[in-house]
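Fold this sequence, please.
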Amino acid sequence: MQRQSPPNQHYVKKFIYYAALGVPHVDIQKYRLKISGLVENPIEFTYEQLLNMIDTKYTKDFHCVTGWSVADVEWEGIKLKRLAEMAKVNNDAKWVIFYSLDGYTATIPIEDALHEDTIIALKMNGKPLDIKAGFPARPFIPHLYGWKSAKWLTEVEFVKDYVDGFWEERGYHERGNVWEEERFKGEGYSHKGWKRNPIF
C-alpha cells in the first residue's frame, strides 16, 4: 500500500534536530509539568508521575514545516485531553500555549489540543525521549507541523485569546495543519477565522 504523503513533504530516514534557543539542561528531580491558565484545578506532575500515566502508544509520521518527514515513528505518552479533563478546563479557553524549558513557546487551537491523537509524548521508538528530541516531554500532534511539538515542555496553558509563539511571531502559521499546508500566516486557518488564499 502506497503511503499518502502530505503536500510538498519528502521522507527522510532520520530526524534533523533543531534547537532554536539551544539545548537546555534538564534537572529531572526538579522537573515539573504544569497545566495552567483557564482551569479550575491547576495541576503539576513530576516526570515519574507522567511515566506512570502513559495511556497511548501509536505509530505516526512526523512532519517538519521545512519539508521533511520521518515515517512510522512509535510514540508513547498521555492524551492531552485527559490532562485537560483533570484540570477542568474552562469553556472560555480557545487556545493552548506550550512553554519550554529553553524559553520557546508554541500556540495551537484548543480543538487540536483536545484531538484524540494529541499526546504529551514521553517515549519514542520504545525509549524515553533523548535530550535532542525534547526529554523529558513534548506535545505531539500528528496532523500539525513539528514546530508545534515544543521540546522540553514545562507548561501547558489554556487561554482565551491568541498569542504568537516563537515561530508564529516570525510569520509561521497560527495552526500549522500538515494536510492543509498551513506553513505561513495567511494560508488557510487564521485566529481571526477561516479564510483561504490561493498561495501555491
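The chain is about 10% helix and 30% strand. The longest helix spans residues 80-87.
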